[in-house]
Structure formats: structure tokens, C-alpha cells
Amino acid sequence: MKRAKGKTAAAAGVLLCVAAVLLLCGGYGPERLLGLGGTGTEAASAKAQGTQEGMPADAEAARINGRAVTAAEMKYAMGLQRTRMIEYFRDTYNQAYDEGFWELELGGENPLELVKREALTAWTRSRIVLEMGQEAGLTESTEFSSLLAAMERENKRRAQAAASGKPVFGPAELDAGSFIPYYLSNLEIALQEKRTAVAAQAPDQPPEPVEPASAAPGEREPVFTRISVAYRSEGAGAAETKADTRQLLSEVRQLLLDGRSPEEAVLELGNDSASFGGLTLSRERLDSANARVYFREQGKLYAWLTGERESGEISPVMDEGFIGEWVVAALGDAEPLKAGTAAEQRKGEAPGKTGFEQELEQRVRTARIELTEPGYSGLQLQ
């Protein structure tokens, strides 16, 4: 990931060297962001937004590929890393969270500076997903304000549906901490599907438009088979364990595409997963009673299930960081796919990372990040 010194309209960018390794897969749910909850398009106080007094929420704090990152946007990204950082200092330095925590200096590390660095590094991936969505015609903007506007529209839709007696899956009202991860999960799925659809088009056929999955799952209650494997284990290296377990579930998915039943796929590969705690298979249903739990804890699975799907369709391998598991789902009765359907799903895909995932990782690694002062230094946490 390249970082360079540059000038912005607000102030000079300040060079910050940060490791290119992204810490994106911790199992911590986003915390509620003060000032962005509910229909929160109104700016909260400077203190609630985590900025210096008098510093507006729309002040520029950084730039990613030349596009401004606001103080409110950084505050949101910092909120995603807050719990992880508190636990890091607890485990590494036996330091409990108390008053003055963010001003501490332990082992040459300051919690506030570290959480800002990790937040900007991790948020870069989300920004790149938004960029790719805009390039593909799936989104109109990469700006944080557009995400909040989309959240407000979704909350209005949910309120209208509830008032008319229609079913509303998940929370009745969303805040930024729940809506944005859900929106980005939908966008990633739509981007992957659009890439697959384009690859399957004959040379003389124009590609058909693919829209992000709707936030409204409608009245249907999908039944599906869920196969998962945990990637968090004590002792083994986190990166190695996560890569190995992903490969394992990718191989399970390939067996499903080849026509094996979920039971056959798990039985064949189950012995290989003993060191990871084993593969788990379950028959589940998404309904109004449990949708809130899926939405909160398995956002990518929820986004996939509530899209336009056909019985027998198999999901991509999804990283559910909140629970620390790789997940793949087969929709409907657990019958083998027809050969034609399996072949179509395999097009452009390999058991490992898809072309979309490889492109996304490459673009994240080469993203240009600049810090803007005084906005970046003014960011605070309570």
C-alpha cells in the first residue's frame, strides 16, 4: 500500500508508513456510532464525533486514491477497530481500559494512533469496494454521505413496510454500525455476480445489468444447508489458519458444484479439518423470528440469502468475521445441482480466490493514502 505526501484543498497531507497487511478479519461487530444512528444524517457534537471541539464532522482527515475521507467517516472506521484495540492492549500489556486509555504510551505504542492507523488501513478496503461498485455502475458515489443517505432511505422503507403490516426482517431501524457492513456485503456479492455474468456472456451478447441485492427480502423464508469451519484457534498462526480453512471450505464448495450432496462433501473432507475444529453442517431457515440474529452476526450470509436466488444455488465462500467462520450455503433442498447449473457457477472461478477477490486485494495493496492535517490529528476516541 503506497502512502505519499501530497497537498489537498484543506491542508498538506502528511506521510504515514503503515504495513500493507490488512487486519480485516477480526471477529468483532461494529459498535454504534454516535451521531450516525437511526436516520442519523445530522452531525452530532464534536465530542460525540470524536473530533476536536469546533472541528466539523465533514472536515477532511485523509485521502484514499485522491478522494477525501471525512472526520465522521474516520470516526466510524475507528469504531470498528475500538474493541479490537482495547483487547490488544489488554492481552499484550495487561492494560485495562480506563480513563486516559487513549493517551497511554506502552511499548512505544499509543492506542489512539494505533486505532487510527488500523482504521484507515481497514477502511481502505471498503472504499475500494465502493470504487469498484461505482465503476461497474452499481453505485453512484463513494462518499460516506451517500452511505448515510442510503441508510435513511432504507429506514424509511422499513417504517413504511411496518406501518402497512408487511414483514420486516432484521432490525426495524438501522444505524451506521449495522447498515454499512450489510450494504457493502450486498455490493461485494453483486460485483462478484456481475463478473461471473459478464464472463459467461457470448462475445456478441451485451452484458445484462446486475443490481446489488435488495435490502428487502420480501415474504419468502429461504431454507438452506449451511456448511462452516471456524478459523480462530489458539496456538496456530492466525493468517495460516484462516488461509487453510478457507481453502478447505473452497474444496467443499467445489464438491457441491460437482454434484455431491452436502453430507457427502463434508464426510469426504471432514477428516482434513480435524486440526481446525471440524466442518459443521446444519439445515436452517431464515424467517422473521431469527432474521435479526443472522443480520447482526452473519451479515454476508444474510445478504446472499435475501438476494434473488434459485433453489439449488450455492453461495460463494463467505467470511463471517463476527463469529470467526468461513461459511458456504446451498439454497433449498439439499439436492445435487444440475450439470449445466454447476458448470455455469464454476465459470471464471477456482477453488481458491475468485478473480474479483484477487483484483480487490491488488487494488487495496496499491491504494494511495494521504493524511490531511489538522483533521487527522484532531481525531479522538472516548
Report what the structure shows.
- There is one protein chain.
- Mean pLDDT is 74; it is low at 2-51, 209-219, 234-238 and 334-352.
- The chain has 382 residues and is of the alpha+beta class.
- 41% of the residues lie in helices and 11% in strands.
- The chain has helices at residues 46-49, 71-93, 111-135, 144-163, 176-200, 238-257, 262-269, 291-297, 299-305, 339-346, 355-365; strands at residues 2-3, 13-14, 60-64, 67-70, 223-230, 279-285, 318-320, 325-331, 368-372.
- The protein starts with a strand and ends in a 10-residue tail after the last strand.
Q: Which SSEs are present, and which pair or pack?
A:
Layout: E1 2-3, E2 13-14, H1 46-49, E3 60-64, E4 67-70, H2 71-93, H3 111-135, H4 144-163, H5 176-200, E5 223-230, H6 238-257, H7 262-269, E6 279-285, H8 291-297, H9 299-305, E7 318-320, E8 325-331, H10 339-346, H11 355-365, E9 368-372
Parallel strand pairs: 1-9
Antiparallel strand pairs: 2-9, 3-4, 3-9, 5-6, 5-8, 7-8
Helix pairs in contact: 2-3, 3-5, 3-11, 5-9, 6-7, 8-9
| Count of separate DSSP helical elements | 11
Radius of gyration: 21 Å
Describe the global form. Answer: globular
Could you give a short account of the major beta sheet? Answer: 5 strands, mixed
Order of helices and strands: EEHEEHHHHEHHEHHEEHHE
Rounded mean pLDDT score: 74
Tell me the fraction of residues in β-strands, as a range.
Answer: 5-15%
**Which structural class fits the helix and strand makeup?**
alpha+beta
Distance between the termini: 29 Å
Number of strands: 9
**What is the helical fraction, as a range of percent?**
40-55%
The low-confidence runs, each spanning 5 or more residues with pLDDT under 50, are: 2-51, 209-219, 234-238, 334-352
